[in-house]
Specification:
The chain starts with a strand and ends with a helix. Helix 2 links the parallel strand 4 and strand 5. 34% of the residues lie in helices and 24% in strands. The protein has a single domain, classed as Ribokinase (UDP-N-acetylmuramoyl-L-alanine:D-glutamate ligase). Helix 1 packs parallel to helix 2 and helix 7 runs antiparallel to helix 8. With 302 residues, it is α/β, with parallel strands linked by helices. The relative contact order is 0.15. GO terms for molecular function: kinase activity. This is Sugar kinase. InterPro entries: Carboh/pur_kinase_PfkB_CS (IPR002173), PfkB_dom (IPR011611), Ribokinase-like (IPR029056).
Length: 302
């Protein structure tokens, strides 16, 4: 069977409107003057993972629901401009969108428009199967249609990764993703006991590696029953925004993983890619190149 695609990314396509605010949380006021402007650009979690993988030289295909609307046009243009293959399933409710409030320190508060998704959202099974059977690996965003695509992905023989984002360790919605994935990414933001949650997932699921990113504290890698700390890497430029750092980490890790690198080196690549993402203003979509990743690894050896 030919596997002409390195990574099939499922879900997570959409558009963000970026508003830089003077502080977070934002105190109540009748109005604020936004000197940097209010800007809208394509790029949500699946888009950023697909972009990150493509910039690292991996053959990437993105599958998601898109509306016939201006937001959908922005997503299509992003993929065309960066040479990312895209299969867009029609979404009558419209393309996913969000508003991101970004503070001076780069932290963000995301407001997601949940009206553009429905419980009945599905990818056509034949489409998922055909794309998966042509891929080496699948990365599933935690959006509704991806949950129902997990059994088809498993049957296709691809390895699977997912990002649980700011899961609290209890919400049952995330569990099917966590238990079906060979690689699990998540944030420590809402976890009272990250190590306990990671070990529980390892015991119940099939994950060979679990990575919990912890912002400025680095990340934690659980593999073969051993938990290790992955330190941060000094960014190549000033930090301006944390938006997309977790997606960049996942792309860097997957680059190493699909090239046969050991988990610790994969996580190091993720840290380098995540640090680069923090130097990119949230008003544009960009990711580290393969050459810059290798240069960063040489400058920051394990």
């Amino acid at each position: 069977m030919s596997r002409d695609t390195d990574v099939l990314v499922l879900g997570g396509a959409g558009v963000d409107t970026i508003i830089h605010v003077p502080e977070l949380p934002l105190p109540y006021a009748d109005s604020y003057m936004i000197e940097d402007g209010v800007r809208t650009r394509a790029g949500q979690t699946g888009d950023f993972v697909a972009l990150g993988l493509t910039r690292l030289g991996l053959r990437t295909h993105h599958l998601d629901l898109l509306g016939d609307d201006p937001e959908g046009d922005l997503v299509r243009a992003l993929h065309k401009d960066h040479g990312i293959a895209l299969t867009a399933v029609p979404q009558p409710l419209g393309t996913k969108r969000a508003v991101n409030l970004v503070g001076p320190d780069g932290r963000r508060l995301s407001l997601y428009d949940s009206s553009r998704a429905a419980d009945g959202d599905r990818f056509p099974e034949t489409t998922v199967r055909t794309l998966a059977e042509a891929s080496r690996h699948a990365h599933a965003s935690i959006t509704q249609p991806c949950a129902h695509a997990l059994p088809v992905l498993a049957e296709s023989g691809v390895t699977i990764s997912t990002d649980l984002h700011n899961w609290d360790g209890e919400n049952p919605y995330h569990e099917p993703f966590a238990l079906a994935a060979d690689l699990v990414f998540l944030s420590t933001t809402a976890l009272p006991d990250p190590e306990s949650t990671m070990r529980r997932l390892a015991e119940r699921g099939r994950a060979e590696a679990i990575v919990a990113t912890a912002g400025a504290e680095g990340a934690y890698l659980l593999t073969d029953g051993s938990l290790t700390h992955i330190p941060t890497v000094t960014p190549p430029a000033p930090i301006v925004d944390s938006n997309g750092a977790g997606d960049a980490f996942a792309a860097g890790f997957l680059f190493g993983w699909l090239n046969g690198e050991p988990p610790h080196r994969c996580a190091h690549y993720g840290a380098i890619a995540g640090a680069y993402a923090c130097t990119v203003p949230s008003t544009r979509a960009d990711a580290i190149t393969r050459a810059d990743l290798m240069a960063g690894a040489a400058e920051n050896p394990l």
